[in-house]
Structure formats: structure tokens, C-alpha cells
Amino acid sequence: MERRFRVLLVVVPFLALGAAGERVAAAAKVAKSSCLSCHSDIKTVLSKDHPDIKGGDIASCFSCHAPDFSGKLEPNPFSARIHRAHGGAQSKADCLTCHTWMQKKSFGLLKQKGSWGAPSKDDLALLKKMVNSWTGFAYLDSLHAKANVTCGGCHGKQLPKEDDTVESARCLDYHGSLEKLAGKTANPDFPKRNPHQSHLGDVDCTVCHKAHSESRVYCLGCHSQFNLKIPGGSNKTEESAK
């Protein structure tokens, strides 16, 4: 009887430790998917007049800031601010704190139905690289970031891939017609020197405007004497840039 009692004394503490270990592991799992894993008090990152929120994960915000899986062609201030705050080449933020991901199956948001596609591990790495560029570089993508235009604003409801491009129609739907743009870039001293009124006819926007790399004025490939500059790029000629 005494021996069996001693065995129980040894076994019971191990059972208790096992249960405690499971609780620690569960807490760590929750922390990884929580803003509180970095921010001790969520109020410290909110404006003073922001209503109180319950919970410590991104899903707590969605009752007011509903996520968009439709790829609307409009600014998304909430998504843009979240990504600007946590993006950048130096950031150690984990995408999966807010996002859910099943390789080649889905990419969504915590506690939300919907998906932006089925990215592989390489696709996800590329996406993070693009977000870092969107957040902190001097390309056209960072200018969109400052205007609260996120990936969906240009790429629609599918996640961008390496060789993706954006149709001119989508750009013009947002920025206005070529005629309107030509009015903005008109040069009264040189009326024919207008990149949006080219003698080549309708030129795709992406010939000059590059989102995640340096934009270049296509005209300068022939007309190196022109003084033309472009947002998110330079006015170097094709030859001098090589």
C-alpha cells in the first residue's frame, strides 16, 4: 500500500506539469496570432479618440473595418495603415499574425471567410518582398501606399505574381482618361512633347510606369534631349541607364 502511494506521488506531479505545459503551448499559439505578442496594450497604438476594442487580435477590428476580398478599385486606409506600420525591409513582423495561409490552398485573414488565392511558399515570399517595396522604397508602389492604395487596388482580388501586369484600363478607371492625363502633363512651350499624347498611339501605362521597380519615360529612349520626369523613377535615357 505504501509503495503504491509513493508511485502516485511521483506520477501526479508529472501529470500536472504536462497539463501546465499544454497551457503554455496554447498561450504561445494565441500570442503568435495576437497583436499583444508585440504590443502590451493595444490602446497605445490607437488614436486617443478611438473607441475601445475588445480582444487582442486583428479580428477585433473587423466589426468596423470590414476586410475586402473583392479587390475594389479604391483606397483602403485601414489595410494600408496596418501594412505600412508592419512592413518594410527591416520589419520582423510575421504575416501570419493576422493572415491565415494553407499552402496552395488559401490565403485569408484570421477568423474571416474568404481568400485572395492559393499561394505557394515562394508566392508568399514574393508577396512579402512586394509589400516591403510598397512600404518603404521610392518606386510607384510606395506612392500608392501613401495614398492608401493596397495590392487589391491595382491587382484586383488575386494576389500578384512575379510576371503579373496591370491593365491600362484599371489605371485609367482610377486616374482618369488619357485625355485628362494629357491635360495634366501638357507643356505650353512644347505642345507636342506630351507623354500622354504620344505619336505612337495608345501606349500601355506599364511601358513607362513600373510599380515595384524604377519607372522610366519611354520617350527618352529616342528623345534624350527632352526634360521629362516620372513619379517613382528618373529621367535617365535608356543608354545612360545601362
Protein architecture, described:
Helix 3 (121-136) crosses helix 4 (140-146). This protein has helices at residues 2-32, 77-86, 121-136, 140-146, 151-155, 168-175, 178-184, and strands spanning 99-102, 106-109, 215-216, 233-234. The strands form 2 sheets. The chain has a two-stranded antiparallel ribbon. It is mainly α and 242 residues long. The protein has a domain at 168-234: Orthogonal Bundle (Flavocytochrome C3, Chain A, domain 2). 35% of the residues lie in helices and 5% in strands. It is elongated, with a radius of gyration of 26 Å. The model is unreliable at 1-31 and 235-242 (pLDDT under 50). It starts with a helix and ends in an 8-residue tail after the last strand. The protein contains 7 helices and 4 strands.
Any chance you could write out the topology, listing elements then pairs?
Elements: H1 2-32, H2 77-86, E1 99-102, E2 106-109, H3 121-136, H4 140-146, H5 151-155, H6 168-175, H7 178-184, E3 215-216, E4 233-234
Parallel strand pairs: 3-4
Antiparallel strand pairs: 1-2
